[in-house]
Amino acid sequence: MSFPYGEDPLQAKDRPVLVVATETRSALVRKITSQDQSRRPHEYDRLPREASGLTKDSWIRKSHDTVLLSSFRRRAGWVTTRV
Fold first, then answer.
1. What is the structure's pLDDT at 10?
2. Residue 69 gets which letter from DSSP?
3. β-strands 8-14, 2-5: how paired?
4. pLDDT tens digits, residue range 23-69?
5. d(CA 37, CA 21)
6. Distance (Å, whole) CA 78 – CA 18
7. Helix (H, G, I), strand (E, B), or coil: what is residue 70?
8. 8 Cβ contact partners less than 8 Å away, ≥ 6 residues apart
9. I need a surface site. Which of 6, 18, 28, 77 has the fewest CB within 10 A?
């Protein structure tokens, strides 16, 4: 999934997301980052790699974004435990 990166909306970065729900053309997602967010517990939850299929421990944003289903590039894995 490609999301704007930094302040420049023309620059984007591929980023894994957790799909929370889908509708006909859109999905409700939570962004995932590998950058340590332990100092922002009100904004992020820890996501162990064992639970996500990702290559390293990550952090998942508590807030949701709505994106078009056509924005997805590939499926990276499945979450095996409740986050």
1. 67
2. G
3. antiparallel
4. 999 999 998 888 999 999 999 999 887 766 778 888 999 999 998 88
5. 24
6. 9
7. helix
8. none
9. 6
- What element of type H or E holds 19? strand 17-22
| Residue 17 to residue 29: CA distance in whole angstroms | 6
DSSP string over 39-51? T-TTTEEEE-HHH
Residue 19 near residue 30 (C-beta atoms within 8 A): no
Measure the CA–CA gap between 9 and 42, rounded to whole angstroms: 25
List phi, psi (to 5°) of 70.
-70, -10
Task: Give pLDDT tens digits for 6-25.
Answer: 566 666 677 788 888 999 99
Q: How much is the CA Rg of the chain, to the nearest whole Å? A: 13
Check residue 6 and report its DSSP letter.
T
Whose tokens are 């904004």? That residue is 43
**Could you tell me the pTM of the whole model?**
0.73
